[in-house]
Target: Ribonuclease HII
Amino acid sequence: MLLNTYSNTDFECGTDEAGRGCLAGPVTAAAVILPKTFYNELLNDSKQLSEKKRFILKDVITNGCICLASAHIWQEEIDTINILNASIKAMHNAISKLITKPTYIIVDGNKFKDYKNIMHKTIIKGDGKYLSIAAASVIAKTVRDDYMNVIHNEFPMYNWKQNKGYPTKEHRDAIKKYGITKYHRKSFRLLPEQLQLDL
Model:
């Protein structure tokens, strides 16, 4: 059973990102503040949920939260500042958009940078331990998936509607065949034999 709060403060915010390991598209973060009374037995780490359940939960979270926000960091900036810094920046940007100022921040993973002197705690596998981080993981994933579905229409040969930019065999085969797009992260190892890829 996922826990409601870590700090027991009034407006604890959970934050998480999606798309960190992708070859194309943004890294997307979400920040969510839930009321202390919030509970949903379906809510879990987004990676443990089917796409259908994630989109059902997106509505449940949106309707039941105190506030939430999301933010993208685009592939060009990922290539400039690296994926770890881009992930943290996306979380900061999402937190900055919250209507209610957080009293504490809990973060999925083990890396974060101070945000405006608000106390924070990094929690490894936090999206499977705390409801607000799980909620943030669902929002980040669904918001990013919606975006990848849109850009899929521009470049259907990569099948981003299905793989969402992750390094599947199909995605890598398409890179091999068609080269890369403006949405690909040029700093990533796009193919195992990267030296043969003409950038």
About this structure: The chain has two domains: 12-151, 154-196.
